[in-house]
Amino acid sequence: MTALLSAAGVAKHYGRTPALTGVDIDVAEGEIVAVTGPSGCGKSTLLHCLAGILRADAGTVTYRDQDLGLWSEKSRSRLRRTDFGVLFQFGQLVPELTAAENVALPLLLAGSGRREARADAQQWLERFGVDHVAEARPGAMSGGQQQRCAVARAMVTQPRVLFADEPTGALDALAGEQVLGELVRAARDQDTAVVLVTHDARVAAYADREVALRDGANDPSGLGVGS
Ligand SMILES: Nc1ncnc2c1ncn2[C@@H]1O[C@H](COP(=O)(O)OP(=O)(O)OP(=O)(O)O)[C@@H](O)[C@H]1O
What we know:
Largest sheet: 6 strands, mixed
Shape: globular
Bound molecules: adenosine-5'-triphosphate
């Protein structure tokens, strides 16, 4: 297997606090990988390193055979607009923009025309069953509707890798499973790889494979939440 994205020996400290002490992970094209482990084991930090949001202190993060540690902040930021999608627990939609404007935003930032971006946004809102709130602002939407819009916004650029950090953690069990099911289906349809951070075995069960962390390193027992 040739990895699309991989980390080798990645370490990261926050001041004196070690968050990662040497993690290895490979993600293949179109593969859905759950990163699991107890609170504070370094899952989010690993996701931020893989997405190029944080630079690792040691080790390498490689995307399409390129060492992201050698890239400038600006180039990594561009990569997040073109090849990566990012989705957090609380959708983090822009409160001043409507749902449609939020979903169109990544396309506009990537250089699409206004009309085309708007049409694509509408399609993705329909796909996630929230086209009826296209003109609403996040404050007037339910938590589930907001998170569906956030998924649409993360997928609208058809990223090669989607980074999702507890993407359904703020939703009740039923809404969470629905959103997750739709997200996974959309990712499979367009061969988007997903790095899915979760502490929940039901969420990890949607992945092809699980990489378990413990105390900032790969869990030596190899047992994850799905085991
Ligand atoms: N910005 C920060 N400044 C200082 N320490 C941090 C920061 N972010 C995380 N940490 C510390 O780094 C370690 C790993 O945190 P991280 O958020 O990556 O873990 P996690 O597995 O995602 O946790 P959770 O499941 O609770 O979100 C923890 O000890 C945490 O307290």
